[in-house]
């Protein structure tokens, strides 16, 4: 149950952070004040600098969301019954006798 809760938490948190980050970055690029007239406007410069960062953030948070989704949707492993393994161990004396 804890794995599912952690998985859903990671999934939702990463999507919320990704959405907020893309929204505020886009808003900042859109709202950038125009300075003096230049060959390349400041908005274009900032957009070109921010594009790789935006893509990297999207990839990182999509991977985090995928990990969270996988954690939430994967059933827990079956418990291991240790009684099955108790009789399979050989002692060092038994190994010496076989040699």
What would your notes on this structure say?
The protein is mainly α. It has one domain. The protein is built from three helices and no strands. It has helices spanning 2-30, 42-73, 92-98. Helix 1 packs antiparallel against helix 2. The model has no long low-confidence stretch (mean pLDDT 77).
Number of domains: 1
Cα end-to-end separation? 50 Å
Residue ranges: pLDDT <50 for 5 or more in a row?
A: none
Q: Give Rg in angstroms.
A: 27 Å
User: Which bin fits the share of residues in helices?
Assistant: 55-70%
Let me know the number of strands: 0
Instruction: Look at the helices and sheets and give the structural class.
Output: mainly alpha
C-alpha geometry? elongated
User: DSSP strand (E) fraction?
Assistant: under 5%
Main sheet characteristics: none
Individual helix count: 3
Oligomer: single chain
User: What is the chain-wise order of helices and strands?
Assistant: HHH
Give the averaged pLDDT, no decimals. 77
Provide keyphrases for this structure.
mainly alpha; elongated; single chain
Describe the structure in brief.
This protein has 99 residues and is mainly α. The protein has helices at residues 2-30, 42-73, 92-98.
Task: Summarize the topology.
Elements: H1 2-30, H2 42-73, H3 92-98
Helix pairs in contact: 1-2
């Amino acid at each position: 149950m804890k794995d599912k809760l952690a998985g859903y938490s990671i999934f939702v948190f990463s999507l919320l952070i990704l959405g907020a980050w893309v929204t505020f970055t886009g808003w900042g690029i859109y709202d950038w004040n125009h300075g003096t007239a230049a060959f390349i406007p400041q908005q274009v410069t900032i957009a070109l600098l921010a594009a790789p960062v935006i893509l990297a953030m999207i990839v990182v948070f999509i991977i985090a969301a995928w990990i969270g989704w996988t954690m939430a949707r994967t059933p827990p492993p079956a418990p291991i019954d240790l009684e099955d393994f108790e009789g399979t161990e050989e002692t060092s004396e038994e190994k010496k006798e076989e040699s």
